[in-house]
Amino acid sequence: MKHARLGFYIFLIPVVLWLFLLIVIPHIDLLIMSLKSENDLGELVWSLQNYKNFFVEPVYWFTFVRTAVYSIIVTIITAIIALPVSFYITKVVNPRYSNFLSILLLMPFWVSELVRVYGWMILLRESGVINHFLLKLGILDKPIEFLYNDVSMIMVLVYTSMLFMVVPLISVMESLDDHLIEAAYDLGASTKDIVFKIILPHAKPGLTSGSIVVFMLTLGNYLTPNLIGGKNSLWFTEQIYTQFIASFNWNQGAAFGFLLLLLSSFIIWLGLKITKQNLSKVVQ
Amino acid sequence: MIRSLPKSKKYTISFKIYIALFYIFLFAPLVITCILAFNNSDFPSLPWKGFTLDWFFANDGHRVGLFHDVNNLRSIWVSIKTAFIVSILSLIVGTMGAFLFEQEEFKFKQALYFLTLAPLVIPGVILGISILLASNSVGLFLEEKLGIEAPIFAPGFWLVVLGQFSFITTFVVLVVSARLKKFDRTLEEAALNLGANRFEVIWHITLRYLKPALIGAGSVAFLMSFENFNTTLFLVGSEPTLPINLYLQVRDGSTPVINAISFLMIVFTSTLALINLYFSKKKDD
């Protein structure tokens, strides 16, 4: 029995060290840092100034709200695009191809996000490939800048997070019994009824877990808003970066970081509560 | 509707078009990036001016191809080193985590498991800044109170390794646990009865059984580390990793050399992904 206890501690200690040294303590430090700011003498003292700055300065909370709203929009668009795709792969296409199609689906997402965003930049920019073809075909007489606006930013954000919506949806669609749809059809149900009364309710767990992940990743994204969004499309992670790297105001940056963490945890918690799921089930 | 039901021609065709468009959407940016890596033009854009390998091999003063580009080569090397160390570390700790959560019973197990999952819902940027802050505090403490200079706590190679390790380990725990769940523990008991000790059992039996999952988890860890941007951004020092280095170049204007690097990354990651897929297929058998 003594051996078994020893084994237990050999497993436990590295895991506890990892979780406490790299997850718990840094986040406590983040909270403490965010609650300190310099007084008139340049000394660090406890204060809520950093959080006050956030609420007083409109550009900060405007960016915060904007980031949250856009992340929700991205999540909804991703879900709308992914639902028919997952349905097609699992239920419509010849089963011989469905495996091939799902492998093909995964391939782009192994490639670095930076490469994927860069690919979109080559396609969309003023001297880009899409403009080249539109000019060639005579649809345009001078190139348009497709980059640096909110529409292309949302499109690329949808692109980057598509995988995390499609994969859980494919797995719930696989578990949907075809007989249910056949029975409904035989009894004269319309396509609309089949979609809203059978397919969507069945897909709900996959839809929720996909949405949570997509929302979280979009909210915390830095690359896409930065490279595709252009000067006017602010993202909250950019504010954090500015505070840390450009202004070197770590205390303010810590407060922003903590607010973003609170926002993402709150929304995920809310999503799980509303749909009556728990985190350990969702990640399985 | 579905395969077994009659469907109108219009339905079938429009669905097919939708799916085709979706796959074009998925692959267009990657395909075009690869094609332009071989375009004999000084800008990564059309028109097509003929095939060239200049962006890989040229070194004539005017064009410097990837294999002569010291800056980019160094960042690739930094990324490989980082990813290698991160995947080894996270594989070790993640596997221990999997054993801990699957095979041991102890107080606060649920709470510890919850903490293990936490990195999944912490945005990468936040993980980066919190680790930056904490290591900075430790560094300051050592310097001010003990007079020890500790450059290891300043942004740089080891901080990047720690930052990536902190969340990649979670993925290893999940992948290895999934396989360990299906393990038949009577095999262990049999070995124990025959006189093996716990470590011999783990080494000879359990780890053998876990091998496909370990290879899969290791390659996922390597890829995640190789590609990480958000967490690395805040921890990187004077030696940028490849994604950070590429980001700086893309932001300041791009050359076809970036396409050449992207092409190699696409080839490399697809190969690794296929290897991983092969092993995860085997796992299911």
Topology:
The complex is a heterodimer of chains A (284) and B (285).
Chain A (H helix, E strand, L loop, with lengths): L1 H33 L1 E3 L5 E3 L2 H8 L1 H35 L2 H16 L2 H12 L4 H8 L13 H25 L3 H9 L4 H29 L3 H5 L8 H11 L3 H25 L4 H4 L2
Antiparallel strand pairs in A: 1-2
Chain B lengths: L8 H28 L17 H4 L12 H34 L5 H13 L2 H22 L11 H25 L4 H8 L4 H30 L4 H4 L6 H10 L4 H29 L1
CATH homology superfamily of chain A: MetI-like
Q: What value does the average pLDDT of chain A take?
A: 85
CATH superfamily name of the domain at 70-254 in chain B?
Answer: MetI-like
**What's the overall average pLDDT of chain B, rounded?**
85
Keywords (chain B): Cell membrane, Membrane, Transmembrane, Transmembrane helix, Transport
InterPro entries (chain B): Bact_Polyamine_Transport, MetI-like, MetI-like_sf
Subcellular location (chain B): Cell membrane
Protein name (chain B): Spermidine/putrescine ABC transporter, permease
Description:
The complex is a heterodimer of chains A (284) and B (285). By secondary structure, chain A is mainly α. Chain A has a single domain (58-282), classed as MetI-like fold (Orthogonal Bundle), CATH 1.10.3720.10. Chain A contains 13 helices and two strands. In chain A, strand 1 (36-38) and strand 2 (44-46) form a beta hairpin. Chain B has eleven helices and no strands. Chain B starts with 8 loop residues before the first helix and ends with a helix. The longest helix of chain B is centred in the N-terminal third of the chain and has 34 residues, at 70-103. Chain B has helices at 9-36, 54-57, 70-103, 109-121, 124-145, 157-181, 186-193, 198-227, 232-235, 242-251, 256-284. Chain B has a domain at 70-254: MetI-like (MetI-like fold), CATH 1.10.3720. Chain B is globular and about 70 Å long. With 285 residues, chain B is an all-alpha fold. Chain B is 73% helix and 0% strand. The model of chain B has no long low-confidence stretch (mean pLDDT 85). Chains A and B meet through helix 1, helix 3, helix 4, helix 5 and helix 6 of A and helix 1, helix 3, helix 4, helix 5 and helix 6 of B. Chain A: The chain crosses the membrane at residues 7-28, 68-89, 101-123, 151-172, 206-224, 254-272.
